[in-house]
Write a structure and sequence with these properties.
Structural class: mainly beta
Mean pLDDT: 90
Order of helices and strands: HEEEEEEEEEEEEEH
CATH superfamily: Lipoprotein localisation LolA/LolB/LppX
Number of strands: 13
CATH class: Mainly Beta
Number of helices: 2
Radius of gyration: 18 Å
Shape: globular
Helix content: under 10%
Strand content: over 45%
């Protein structure tokens, strides 16, 4: 299945190296055209790190399924007790914004996330609801900025700017793609005033079930000094998942 690049989920590929210089658009297209797993089932630890260093840890189970190049994702929060049984569903659409719903146990009802809430924090993390969305290559212009080394990765550096400024909460993003795999190993996000707002960095990358998988990702809001670290505890690819999980009925009942 083909993958679309989003902030919460970074998927990877191995690709042959071209003898010719790649353009920014070609690099973005290569990352977009990754063959990824049909299904993924994972358990992650999400640490919310305050500027004073205190940590609020959460355990989340996630399922995803891709059909006709459109992805559905459901998350269930297990720990701590303050967020247990909170569930989130996102369904990608071909020609319109993704549909999103959240179930909050305290309210005992499923609430649809309005598109106007896209710039709001997802469950207190440094991700917004819009950060959860996948973006098509043609939604942005892609400028090749050069080549740089990030950690152990030799990278292409590409600046992506929304073709329609109203289509993104950022003025632009700068992404470093590993040359060998086209994995986005670092992303800088700039606010509408073109000031650096957030930085995402892959800290650990491993091959699991023949898929390159980010096992440790750090996302930091440099303006608030708050960070979100996502650590993969368990992940399984291409195993059968009940489609009923990707429904608002599952959000409400948990089964």
């Amino acid at each position: 299945m083909k993958m679309k690049v989003s902030l919460l989920t970074v998927c990877l590929l191995i690709s042959s190296t071209s003898l010719f210089a790649l353009t920014g658009t070609e690099i973005a297209q290569n990352a977009h055209d990754v063959e990824s797993a049909d299904t993924v089932h994972s358990v992650v630890q999400m640490d919310l790190i305050s500027k004073d260093g205190s940590v609020d840890s959460r355990i989340i189970e996630e399922w995803s399924m891709e059909k006709d190049e459109l992805k559905s994702i459901v998350m269930a929060f297990h720990k701590p007790a303050s967020v247990a049984n909170t569930r989130f569903l996102q369904i990608e659409n071909e020609s319109r914004a993704d549909d999103k719903w959240i179930y909050l146990p305290a309210l005992k009802r499923v609430r649809r996330i309005a598109s106007s809430d896209g710039d709001k924090s997802f469950m207190g993390t440094d991700m917004t609801y819009d950060d959860m969305d996948s973006r098509e290559v043609e939604q942005d212009s892609h400028e090749m900025m050069g080549e740089e080394k990030i950690g152990s990765w030799d990278c292409y550096k590409v600046k992506g700017s929304a073709v329609d400024p109203a289509d993104s909460q950022y003025s632009y993003r700068i992404t470093w793609f590993d040359k060998d795999t086209f994995v986005p190993v670092k992303v800088e996000m700039y606010d509408k005033k073109e000031v650096l707002l957030k930085v995402m960095e892959v800290k650990d990358l491993q091959k699991v079930d023949n898929y390159w998988t980010p096992m440790d990702v750090m996302l930091k809001n440099v303006q608030t000094n708050h960070a979100t670290q996502i650590k993969m505890l368990k992940i399984v690819h291409d195993q059968a998942i009940n489609p009923r999980l990707f429904t608002t009925n599952f959000l409400e009942k948990g089964k």
